[in-house]
Structure formats: C-alpha cells, structure tokens
Amino acid sequence: MSEARTIAVAMSGGVDSSTVAAMLCAEGHQVIGLTMQLWNQRRLSGHEGMPEAVQGRCCSIDDVYDARRVAETMGIPYYVVNHEERFEREVVRPFVQEYLSGRTPIPCSLCNNHLKFDELLTVARQIGAETLATGHYARVRYDEERGRWLLSRPADNSKDQTYFLFGLTQEQLSRTIFPLGDMTKPQVRERARHLGLASAEKPDSQEICFVPGGDYKKFLDAYLSEQGDALPDTAGELVTADGHVIGEHNGIHNFTVGQRKGLGVATGSPLYVIQIKGDARQVVVGDQTDLYSRTLRANRVNLISVASLDEPMRVTVKIRHRHAGDTATLSDAGDGQVLVAFDEPQRAITPGQAAVFYDGDVVVGGGWIV
Amino acid sequence: MRRVYFDNNATTPVLPEVMAAMQPYFSERFGNASSIHRDGQSARAAVEHARESVAVLLRCKASEVVFTSGGTEADNLAIFGSVQAGDHVITSTIEHHAVWNSCRHLEAMGCGVTYVPVDGNGLVDPQDVRDALRPNTKLISIMLANNETGVLQQVAEIGRVGAEAGVCFHTDAVQAAGKIPIDVNEIGCDLLTISGHKIHAPQGEGALFVRKGRQLQAMLYGGRHERSRRAGTENVPGIVGLGKAVELATHGLKNGDTLKIAVLRDRIEKTLLEQIDGCGVNSGGVTRVCNTSNIYFDSVEGESLVIALDLKGLAVSSGAACSSGASEPSHVLTAMGLRSDRARASVRFSLGKQNTSDEVDFAISLVPKTVERLRELSPVYTKRAQLTT
Question: Parallel, antiparallel, or unpaired: how do β-strands A313-318 and A292-303 relate?
Fold first, then answer.
C-alpha cells in the first residue's frame, strides 16, 4: 500500500462508505469522516402526500447516527457539513425545472458534479485532506500514455455507478479514490462484517434521496406549494406524431418518454409517450415502434479519456442507468454538443437523462440528452 | 495533541472546587431533600444553601429562586407559565432557541407574538418594545447577553417599559451570569434565567428567578417541590454544583476575573484583525460581555474553518448546531442584517476563566494561516483576487 495520507471519506452511514472508511483506517491512513447535510427530510412533511418523517435515507438523523457511530468505533474525526443551500440551488431546483419542461432529470449526477466532487472535495482540501474517498463502485487511475486520469467500470458490474460519475473533471478525478472499485458487493458486506461494522447488514438505498417513496409528482406538488407557487399549469394536448389531437393531458410533468400507462385514452393498440414538447405543452403519443430512434444529441459534454473528439469514435453508449449500452459512433457536433449514431435503433431515448460513452470499461465521457 | 477550548458559550468545564463540593452528595449525603429524616435534611440544607448563593449573585431573595434542569426549562417555565392562548408576547429576533422556539409555539397556541428587530450591532431599541405593547400584552422576553455576539441589551430600559405598562418582563441571562454583575431590581425584571454549565457547574442544572408575588403556572405535574413551581425530586448534586459555581462567579466578579478574560479576548481580536485582511468583529461597536468575540472572515466558510481548527486542536464554533450536528446559518447574525455569506463566514471565539495567555498565543499562531489556506481553495476568494488585480 502507498504511504499514509490524510484522506477524507464521504460517509453516508451506509455499508459502502463505512467500509471505505474502515479499510483506509486499517491501511494506516489518517481518515476524516465527512457527511453532507443536503436536504432537511422533515422540511416538506405536512404537505399533501409527504410523510411526517423519513427514516433510513440520506441526511436522515438515523444515517448521521450510523455514520457517527462508525467514526467513533474507529476513533476518527467526523463532521457533518451543511450544504443544503447549494443542494437546493444546484440539484433540487433544476430537478423540478426539468420535469416542468418535459424532461426526465437525474439528480444524482448533478449532486456528484456540484456537491460531492466539488464542494465536499474543497472542504476536504481546506481541512487538510488532499484526497477524497467515496463508496462508489467505479475505478479511477492515471494513464501515463494518454496523460489523463481515467474513470472505468468496477469489478462488480451489477453495481456499476460510472453512469452517474461522467461529469468528473480531470482535477476532480486526480483527487478522488474509489476503494470499492475492485470488490463485489458481497465482498464489501463480508469485509464490513469482518471489520465489525454495524452497518454491514443495512439495506442498499436506491431511490432519489430527497423524494420520499420515489413519488416525484407528490414531491413537485409539495415543493412548489412550499415555495408559494401553485404548480404551473402544464396541461395540454395529447397528439399523434402527425399532429392529430386525440385528447388532453393534465400536465407534462406527469409523463416520461416510453411511458404507457395513465394516458387516459382508449385505443385499439397500446399507446406510448414518444415525445414531450415542453414549449407547446404537447405530449406526443404513438405505438411501440415510434419509440425507437437511432440518433441522439447530448450537450454540456464532459470528456474524460480523451481531451477532444477530433474524429468520430466507436463507443458503447448507455442512455439510462439500467441500460445495457449499445454500440454507436460518437462525433463532435460543435457548441459543446455531440452526436451519437447508434448501430441499432434504441427504445425511448429520453431528454434530461445522460448519455455516457464507454470504450470497453473506460468512460470516454458523457453529456445530457437534449 | 494539544487541545485549546475557546467555546465557553457552548459549555464550560466543571471547576475542581465545584466537583469537590458536589462529590459528597452522590453517595454519602444521598438523601432526598423532601424526606423527613436526617439524610433528607442534610440534602435539604445543601439545596437551600445553594439557593442562598444564587440569591446573592442575582441580588434577590432565596425564596425567589426556582431550580430547573437548565436554561431551556427555565425559559420555558417563564414563558408558558406566564401566558395563555389569546395573550400577546413581545420578544426579539435574536433570542436563543429556548425562547425563540417557545414563542413560535405560542403562536401555534393562538398567542400573538411580536419579534422586535435589532440594529446592525444586534441591539434592541427599547422604544420598539414600548411601541409593540398591546392591551393584551402579558410578557416581554428579551435576553440580557446574546450567546453568539455577546451583545448586552439595555434591559433596565426595557424593564421600565414593562413596569410602566404593568407587563411581566423576563430576561434570559444565561450568557450574562458571572460575566457582568446582575441585580434583578436594577434590571426591573420579574423573571430571569441562568444556567449552571455556562459558569463551570455541570450540565443539567439551571435556575429561574421568579419575583415574589408573580403567579406562575407550573409545567410539570407532580410533587410540591420548589414551592409547587417545579415538580420533581431535586437534583441535589447538580444544585450543589450550581451553588458552588455561583459563589465562585460572584467572587470572580469582585476579583477581576472578568477583566482578565477581557484582556485575553481583546488580544485575540486585535491580533487577528491586524494579521488577516477582510475580517472584522460582529457587534464590535457596542457593549459586550467580556469573553465573546464573533469574527467574520470574508470568503471563508465558517463551518470549514471550525473543522480545520478543530483538527489542529482549537475548539471554536459557528452558527447554531442543527439536529444532525451540521451548522445552520445564524439567525442572530442574519437578523442583524449581515449578508448570508458573511453570516456563514463568521466564527465565535468564547473564552472562560480557565483559559490562559499561552492558549491565546496558540490560537493566534493557528488562525491566520488556516484562514489563508481556506481562502486559497475558495472559489469565491480567487475570483475576487483576480478582479482586483
């Protein structure tokens, strides 16, 4: 193992980050535990559809308690840092805005870009830790030949979180370590048990941390009503691809591309949402085959394994977290945008989601689907 | 690692004399102060002796002192014991959460609450209190010294406003006790809160001064302890500790302890202001208690500075702790009109009588370079530096 360093660990109270902290301690590093307070889980309680108090989720008192206990057991300094203001500005508001514009956002990537690997990394460096470790399943290494820091898929493909990390800059990657990248989840749990961590059997969290129960529509209602806005009226027409109005809908934020249920129209063959036109407040529907398309554009692109796209590149592209990825040709489209041309048509390419490009296991980069 | 503690407004170490005074009351003289037998009598005597000591500190009668579990309970008893639904209460925007959140709850109960504002130094204008009076005003609750800035309010003026209007006046003196002489008659208050652990007694003990004749609705139902104003077996060791700490504080006020603390505090303030650009003292322009200095360091996140200093051995604080242990922006500094970034850039140094000149040197050697390091990495600071060059 490399020489002892001061390393800050982003601790959520879960098994992954607890194990990271314990492993680094065992390796003899000076470890500082940090938990970000991002969202007050009780803030929207009392609003319609919101639970009174949320347990067992990011930023809940229970999770902080768990993280603190792990830190105490290891005898490491531990602090909770308050980033609620920035989280609301950079993650929650864009999340709401995206839905109201007819897109389907991924807040976790925004949080990684703006909070974890930006503000938290800054705090870590300010308090004397030049390196930040997290419990993400991913790998990072420096490639001498290319002179670049590379992000690549972890050993445990089923836990691969690189899709959410495509926005990391070279500077951020150079100061980040992912100690779980070479381990599988069962190995991590085994290690946690071995290290005597109370969080060893804690279930994984899956949903968006600030949306209780995963019901984003109720969250939008509650948040906007707290902000004093009524939910803006985004109701409009349900149209076919060739422009025929076949009905009405109750607001574009209730739809996502590929959705079948809840259209409120009875026809012979099943209808799917194939496009959401935010400006016109139209939800375009069609049959299964209309859902497929071969190309996408992505903006706000971040490139990792290469400095620029000088010529078209053969890659594998994931268009959502649970997408297996498919082969495509990636080319620069100017204005910070890229064009992805898939070999085979893809189902439900969804604006607001990320397109992440891979060269084998290595992340080439990614951008936001427009 | 060397540890230096400059967070005495959060809590203070129990002094050895206080420990020694309490010691016999755990196992030797363990009696219940309400019992008839000699064991009980011995505990009763100790409790009443402590009550006398508190009365000396506050210049009141011993019978006017009610022991509680701390400052928060005393504030709650003062407020909820004096007010009913439909009444009106006047308080300020810079009160401690014990008063502030009690008043918020009064609103939920159907009381009217006026939060009088403060000026840029954190001072309440007594005229604002007078102007806020209504026919149904039952209580004025304005703190004596602020926990974050140390600012002293003109409580005697406010006391006169209350007296003239016949309205009960409560003052939270938790941060003032032991730091300035307190005379409940000069202040003209009917209720006054103190807390043990801010003056080197253990945590979990406090007292409320209740002026003779003042009716107070008890909050706890139980035995007739504390003249039926606070049910529950007395915490005898805690009360003995509070009594001893109060005696030491009374002695210290005469003895120049506060002056010694002020000299140390002023040296920190002066040196940091000389050595660090873009910093200043919040409420520096008005009368403060001797031990508190609230300093802003522009372009620095106070929370990060507190953590960085802690890792190097210096304990200070910023903002208010929320339930997770993170800090929230200070409502006190915001109420004074500080921009939110400057409120977040503020850190409180609060000294105690155990602190030494050597410890001040330690802090002075540490803070400037830590602030510099934080600014080097601050995106806000870099931008500003580029703009000016």
Answer: unpaired
Q: Do A80 and B307 touch (CB under 8 A)?
A: no
- In terms of residues, how long is chain B? 389
**Does B379 contact A at CB distance below 8 Å?**
yes
Q: Where are the beta strands (DSSP E) in chain A?
A: 6-10, 30-37, 78-82, 131-133, 139-143, 148-152, 176-177, 236-240, 245-249, 272-277, 282-286, 292-303, 313-318, 326-334, 337-347, 354-359, 362-369
- Predicted confidence at residue A56, as pLDDT, reads 46
The shortest C-alpha distance from A124 to chain B (Å) reads 9
DSSP states along B37-90:
SHHHHHHHHHHHHHHHHHHHHHTS-GGGEEEESSHHHHHHHHHHTT--TT-EEE
| Residues 6 or more apart in contact with residue B239 via CB below 8 angstroms | B46, B47, B50, B51, B67, B205
As given in the structure block, the two tokens for residue A128 are 């004397």
Structure confidence by residue, pLDDT tens digits, A119-144 = 999 999 999 999 999 999 999 999 99
Residue at token pair 């200095």? B293
> Of A235-239, A252-256, B28-32, B315-319, which one has max mean pLDDT?
B28-32
A97 neighbors A147 (Cβ within 8 angstroms): no
Cα–Cα distance for residue pair B148/A83, rounded to 1 Å: 22
The answer to whether B200 and B15 have CB atoms below 8 angstroms apart is yes
Contact A122 B379 (CB under 8 A): yes
Distance from CA of B307 to the nearest CA of A (A): 7
Return mean pLDDT, chain A: 90
- Residue B284 DSSP SS3: coil
Residue B320's DSSP bridge partners are B328
pTM of the model: 0.91
pLDDT tens string B191-245:
999 999 999 999 999 999 999 999 999 999 999 999 999 999 999 999 999 999 9
The DSSP secondary structure of A245-302, one letter per residue, reads EEEEES-GGG--TT--TT-----SS--EEEEEETTTTEEEEE-GGGGEEEEEEEEEEE
Is pLDDT at A2 greater than 90 in this prediction? Answer: no
- The whole-angstrom separation of Cα A194 and Cα A96 is 42
